[in-house]
Amino acid sequence: MHKAGFVNIVGNPNVGKSTLMNQLVGERISIATFKAQTTRHRIMGIVNDDDCQIVFSDTPGVLKPNYKMQEMMLAFSESALADADVLLYVTDVIESPEKNQDFLDKVKKMTIPVLLVINKIDESNQKLLGDIVEKWHGLLPNAEILPISAKNKFGVDMLMKRIKELLPDSPPYFDKDQLTDKPAKFFVSEIIREKILLYYDKEIPYSVEVVVERFKEDEKRIHINAVIYVERDSQKGIIIGHQGVALKKVSSEARKTLEKFFDKRVFLETFVKVDKDWRNSQRELDSFGYNPE
Ligand SMILES: Nc1nc2c(ncn2[C@@H]2O[C@H](COP(=O)(O)OP(=O)(O)OP(=O)(O)O)[C@@H](O)[C@H]2O)c(=O)[nH]1
Ligand SMILES: [Mg+2]
Questions:
Q1: Does the beta carbon of 19 sit less than 6 angstroms from any atom of ligand 1?
Q2: Which residue has a Cα nearest atom 21 of ligand 1?
Q3: What percent of the chain has a predicted confidence (pLDDT) above 90?
Q4: What is the pTM of this model?
Q5: Which secondary-structure segment (H or E) carries 114?
Q6: Which atom of ligand 1 is nearest to the CA of 11?
Q7: Which of 6, 33, 9 is nearest to 151 (CA)?
Q8: Which residues of 65-94 are buried (b: 16+ CB within 10 A; e: fewer)?
Q9: For the segment 196-223, what is each residue's pLDDT rounded down to a tens digit?
Q10: Does the beta carbon of 205 lie inside 6 Å of ligand 1?
Q11: Structural domains of the chain sorted by starting position, each given as residue range(s) with its CATH number in brackets
């Protein structure tokens, strides 16, 4: 008998959802940084075996929307509640369990198996962890609790084993050689955005969207043109930096990661453009691919 299902990863920002998905899938599919709100889309990572297919979904951290973009992000997270066969609700040893009661109430009402994953236990100790487990047990009595460290891959194999047990009997949903639902261009823009998150401060990374306008592969190289959109003229200057130094650094870091990702030489050209208040424009968000079902 073949098993297959959707295992959706949800939780508050910065708890390690993307790090966990990458560990479960064994590939660097989703960008993960120390900054909250790194993930903006629902991104599938598919694990294929002869007798099972696990379709993981990484989602944006749940937050109260301030911009239309964040409304779209929340819609991606909520879509993951609607079609899950197994839900991974990820928290960590740092955040307070009461942080997001609305979303938690929705999770509480779910009838599918919920695995409550307590991440970052490398930052905790037995006593503290015991208290946290007890608290969560009170909050989500029906959830199975699994403490892990995604970063150190501690407890991840056990989690995987449990997921496989809970997976329903079903034929596969995707081709057995498919790793994700997103095209190559998406990963290019995400890798560039990851470098922007790491390199610039404050509001800058959050005001940025990256669009890949050209992706052309020949025998030797991949030629990529990417546009970095910002919301204001002043931000454009910051992205480019004095004599273009900042943008050069970001582009060169992105190129290195892209070469690893595609296992091929990459020629990357980046451009910066202003798209006023794109985060609040439904039309722009549509064109940038923020289309939760
Ligand atoms: N100490 C420790 N840090 C971790 C662990 N797992 C993830 N992190 C760190 O936590 C930070 C956030 O990780 P992400 O995977 O980007 O978190 P996320 O939940 O996807 O965040 P958003 O996409 O912003 O919602 C990064 O700096 C990770 O390196 C862990 O097991 N232990
Ligand atoms: Mg993430």
A1: yes
A2: 14
A3: 96
A4: 0.96
A5: strand 114-119
A6: 19
A7: 33
A8: eebbbbebbbbbbebbbeebbbbbbbbbbe
A9: 999 999 999 999 999 999 999 999 999 9
A10: no
A11: 3-166 (3.40.50.300), 184-288 (3.30.300.20)
